[in-house]
Amino acid sequence: MVGLPARGKTYVARKIARYLSWSGRRTRLFNAGDYRRVMLGAQHTHEFFSPENAEGKASRLAVAKAALDEMFKWLRLDGDVSIYDATNTTRARRDLIREQCESEGVRPLFVEIICTNEAEIEATIRETKVASPDYAFLSADEAVQDFRNRIAHYASAYEPVGEDEGDFIKYIDKGAKLILKNVHDDLGQQLVRFLLNLRGTRKSIWLTRHGESMWNRSNLIGGDPDLSPSGRIFADRLAEFVNEHEAMRDVVVWTSMLKRTIQTASKIARPQQVFHQLDEINAGICEGMSYADIRQKLPEEAVARARDKFRYRYPRGESYQDLIERVVPVVLAYEREPRPLLVVGHQAVLRVFYTYLMGASPEGCPHVSIPLHTLIELSPRIYDCSEERIALLQ
Amino acid sequence: MVGLPARGKTYVARKIARYLSWSGRRTRLFNAGDYRRVMLGAQHTHEFFSPENAEGKASRLAVAKAALDEMFKWLRLDGDVSIYDATNTTRARRDLIREQCESEGVRPLFVEIICTNEAEIEATIRETKVASPDYAFLSADEAVQDFRNRIAHYASAYEPVGEDEGDFIKYIDKGAKLILKNVHDDLGQQLVRFLLNLRGTRKSIWLTRHGESMWNRSNLIGGDPDLSPSGRIFADRLAEFVNEHEAMRDVVVWTSMLKRTIQTASKIARPQQVFHQLDEINAGICEGMSYADIRQKLPEEAVARARDKFRYRYPRGESYQDLIERVVPVVLAYEREPRPLLVVGHQAVLRVFYTYLMGASPEGCPHVSIPLHTLIELSPRIYDCSEERIALLQ
């Protein structure tokens, strides 16, 4: 990452890290500020960050090198992608990073975050910096003033990424403008696609499975059945809940193309949108069978599935890993959507989407609990979500 | 489009038009040069294009307005996207276009093509301009010289698209650099994704279905069967053909994940790559049935399919229209790949890919003939492909 303080680097870096991890790349974030606080203690006022302060400068370089060492150690052992979240606002610092990358055989890509909107910067300072351990001993206004001084130190030495500095993405004003240099490989394209959709608006999201279907009653997998009588009661309760819930006034409802989600959402008086990418996992030749049928008729499939439920692909159907790829457009639409959302989906597809929203490990997604007739409410915090579960039908 | 002559505007415009049409947007290209030649006759030397030539300037404006009129007429009646392929190198011209767009309720997006590589420009002039009807009366060298003079006239008045000119994409040096301004909607994102993959390298591509499978013999749909004895003979012939064919020396082989394509390619001594997006159309609940079975057991499905084979989706399976969406990553990988390709696929999925390669109408794709045991060779020309079909097994 490259950019002055309070431009949203950490916000974008965490979003990217979560998205890449979810999509199957082993990704880790290394935040230089965290290393500084661990190595040197918190509570440095702006003087520490002045380019004139030789001692501060040496300490900050030592911190940067320590964080980079940890980062390369991790890349050597376990990692696909690491994100070095620091200001990196001087060419000298970026040259240091590039040289180390070259000697490690790692491809560097600079992601520079630029914000020209002063009100946006002020909001970021008040929201993410005032509560920082760096300012435990200052009032909010003192903290803001000190942080402005810290920014001024960085601004005095700031050199934006130059045309001759290799591959880069410049992300300007929340993506209103992007400049891409040599961003052609899979990872680069994945980043661009994500950044084009990242609008940075915060909203709540509610997830629920469809009401009980006729096939749920007889334990059959897949298909396109209607709701059962009990599923229809859930649909009524859900509509009542949404209508009575002030926070859900501007909600948009997303369903799959299958009858059981459309029927579940049908009584909700809110705009509705259908995504075929929200259809339930395709069980291929096992559609219409029960798990008992599979164990009996296709025992080798039952064994393979039990061995690795994440990677197991139903013959002519899908795996959870395949689902992640299929759900990408839903995740991007979520990042782009400014309004709160209610998603009426299916067990496997919601496990995959929930795993993204909560930043959980993708390999764990087959084991996420998404019970029938329960509404899961996720409320955004600065960098993550809080969760509440509401049983609408006992 | 925006850009000086011989920057590759028409090449990019045609590629975009083909891709958007294939993906389901009704798209048409309006080339100002074609309108000029029709309205004013061909064979204008460079003096006609000088900004000093008042008469030429008035004629060129009249041509531009006529082309724009046609374009808006088409957008009003039938179109989703039109591409206005002209230099549009002055702000005044772009203002005219933007005003007309506004009064028509059409969203303008400027795609500016910039090339800083002189050798590339020279090659474009020699390849696409010397043979133009404009130069029927000149030698090649005279044509090149005149065209250079024409470029100089445009260059003298060139104003690159400015920050205040609304939404734009700047495509620089074949995509080595891209600048995106407010490109967030679906169409814009689709364009960016395509342009990030468009490398502009020309190569031949060979398409073939897998050899006959055991299920082909009994007329069953889908599944993951092995090759039949006759299919295995085809696999041998195909490997011999590739090995003996000098033009296929550097070929890369793409297969689906299904056994019948992997077995068909298995004896070819060339690098191989598996794409699950090349798997055959998913026939959902009809997998493992014959068409006669479907007519008998699911007559309403047989009727719906006969009525609209392009949009018909097998229950829990896919339609041809769905296949287009699924095949997008293959098309992008094709545009990105510098080496010649041999694709070993399946009937429906090859119909969809072939339709892209030939720039044919997507709705016609269910009716493209892709016989078993036949190699289809597509050789690139400047703006399209020529085709040859070779029966390897009678």
Would you give an account of this structure?
2 copies of one chain form a homodimer. With 394 residues, the first copy, chain A, is α/β, with parallel strands linked by helices. Chain A folds into 2 domains: 9-197, P-loop containing nucleotide triphosphate hydrolases (Rossmann fold), CATH 3.40.50.300; 205-391, Rossmann fold (3-Layer(aba) Sandwich). The first copy, chain A, has helices at residues 9-22, 32-40, 54-77, 91-104, 118-129, 140-157, 186-197, 214-217, 229-244, 259-265, 291-297, 299-307, 320-336, 347-358, and strands at 27-31, 81-85, 110-114, 168-172, 177-181, 205-209, 252-255, 272-274, 341-345, 374-380, 385-391. The first copy, chain A, has a 6-stranded mixed sheet with strand order 8-7-9-6-10-11. A 3-stranded mixed sheet of chain A has the order 3-4-5, covered by helices on one side. In chain A, strands 1-2 form a two-stranded parallel sheet. The first copy, chain A, is globular, with a radius of gyration of 24 Å. Chains A and B meet through strand 5 and helix 7 of A and strand 5 and helix 7 of B.
